[in-house]
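Q: Could you fold this chain for me?
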Amino acid sequence: MYDNSIVESVDLDILKKPESNRFIDEIQSAHVYLTLEQSTPFFNIVLSHFDKDLAIDKGKEILHCLSKILSVEDFLKVFVKKNFAVSLPFLRKEYIDDLFDVLYVIVTRAPEAFDEELCACFHKRIKNRGEKSLLLITIYAQHFNEFDNPWPMLDLLFHCSSRFSKPDLAARYAALLSTLVQLYPEFRRGRGKEAWNTITDILSQVDDPPTLSSLYNSLCGISVWVKRCDFPFSVAKKHLKNPELAPSVLSLFLIIPLRGKELEDRVMVKFLLKMAASNGRATLVLFKLAENEGVATILAEDPIWLSSDIPQIVDTLRLLLVVFQHRDLRLVIAQSIEFSDFLQRLLDMKNESILGIVCVIIRRIDLTPELVKDLSNSSIIMNFINVAKQIGTNEAKRNILLLLDKIGKVAYTRELVQSCERITQMILDKGDLFEDATIVATGLCRYRRCAKKFSELYLVEFFTKLMKNRDYKKMATKFLKAVDQYGD
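A: Sure. Below is the predicted structure, expressed as structure tokens.
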């Protein structure tokens, strides 16, 4: 609080006469001797001089004095309550830096002073001091929840975006908008999309990589909260090629929806594939892009990427599985040489989980006789069976049955008859695989060679005996009927 025990006071009569030789001394000491009772006339007197032909040095001294006086809470309260701030020399360029010093004191100690009228005055000077203006708004914004109507001040962020978007301020400007969106739900609802659009517009206006990276990072912060906003992918695709910017672009791509014809770009897809060899984020972006059928088509029609690890073979597999989500593209990619080679690489891993995935992949394809022949000629089918045999678990054996069942419904291959003995053993064991093996054997009997082989292995006699068992009679009947129909 102000100490009223001070005896001396400011000589207001001298301050009324700026032409006086004693004016400078009096204004320079006013912050020491001004009393609370004098504050209102003091403010009226010194501010009125800016409407006259005032020497610049004396005007600056007045503003310096105000900065000191307004640092005292009681004087500041009077200044704000009686709205003296709008009488500051906003239209005088020669005082602009001193003016901003006064505004800084006000916004740090009494941000509520920035009402609609004062903000209108402040607006006029933002273009001249963008950095200082952004600082004042940043300080004000920290009190967002304390105001009933913060919009006159905060909307200056958008009204003056052309100044704040300049290269010298763009990064800090975007960071402020992003922070406001993330911290304040009311700002998010009222200005979230506008903040997003403002920052995306800046992406095409600056060239400095550090600034652009900061812009992308700010967009990442907003994108978590603001949905269904447009994004200039054409600009981002150019930035993606810059090693300094790529990490930030990829981070944003992992958050926002990747939709639109702009992304169905062969050059971009190839670039991402190359990047993915050593960049996990690029790989994740490819997974996301491949959900788009247009991008998946590009990958399916030119599957050279199946020959690479992006960056690991399991990542290449994951990308293939995403492409396989598009049913019409399965056969397209399956007919490529790269596809067969890739399946062989997977089988070489001799991993039970991978074996199961290979089985799922083949079973999802609408196989043709020609493709079945290719799988046989490339030894994929036989290698699959051999790997499963080496693994030796029931799950691996079940995958053999699933694969043979799928192939057998499309075309005959030598692997079918070669597997009859293995299938027969699964049936004779009457273990967990009995039912699955019986179903597969019944299906394979459509091929005369398989039916004959099962007969030679005494399955006819085996199932004939099972006809007496109610639990097995239905399966036995189907098998015997199939053998009888095709086995002669």
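A (continued): The longest helix spans residues 185-202.
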